[in-house]
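Hi R.,

As promised on Friday, here is the backbone we talked about, encoded as structure tokens. Could you run it through your design pipeline when you get a chance and send me back a sequence?
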């Protein structure tokens, strides 16, 4: 789980600064880019987490890498994280910042799982339906899981709607296992 007190505290600090400076959308873009780079460039992640490399060298490398790509406050924040020896938390701080951003904007994340890839039109229609049901703007993440056979599973926050064929088959199995075919009535 990425919600440690360290991660939340740093993410909240950056979020409050971004809000105060009216740069919330710009810094959110920076954080998304940093998160993407951390996931794509394994060497950068190794560099940040390497205990032998001095903080000053890490700051120098990060500063040259992100200098013209991110806001000055984002860059200062990255430098602060390294100075405080929290660089191994950077990815999770970015994730927590994203969660704070969504909460602040009133966004909900819906996870849609289907047996096959949906068309853009289908995704748009499902997204609109979810937004109408929750009366909130929704960010739709899609997953493909062939094991559900057909149908879909929609999860928003702690609510889940399972309309998958695999679940329906399981429900039928459960019903038949409780049925006594000799007496033609339930046990």
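Update: got your reply. Pasting your designed sequence below so it's all in one thread:
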């Amino acid at each position: 789980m990425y919600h440690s007190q360290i991660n939340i505290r740093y993410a909240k600090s950056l979020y409050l600064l971004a809000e105060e400076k009216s740069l919330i959308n710009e810094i959110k873009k920076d954080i998304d880019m940093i998160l993407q780079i951390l996931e794509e460039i394994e060497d950068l992640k190794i560099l940040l987490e390497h205990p032998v490399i001095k903080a000053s060298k890490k700051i120098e490398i990060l500063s040259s890498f992100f200098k013209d790509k991110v806001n000055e406050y984002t860059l200062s924040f990255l430098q602060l994280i390294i100075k405080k020896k929290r660089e191994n938390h950077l990815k999770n701080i970015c994730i927590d910042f994203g969660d704070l951003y969504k909460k602040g904007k009133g966004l909900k994340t819906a996870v849609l799982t289907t047996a096959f890839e949906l068309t853009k039109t289908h995704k748009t229609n499902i997204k609109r339906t979810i937004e109408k049901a929750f009366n909130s703007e929704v960010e739709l993440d899609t997953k493909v899981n062939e094991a559900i056979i057909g149908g879909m599973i929609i999860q928003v926050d702690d609510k889940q709607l399972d309309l998958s064929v695999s679940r329906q088959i399981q429900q039928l199995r459960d019903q038949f296992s409780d049925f006594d075919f000799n007496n033609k009535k339930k046990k």
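One thing I noticed while checking it: The CA atoms of residues 127 and 133 lie 10 Å apart.

Thanks again,
M.
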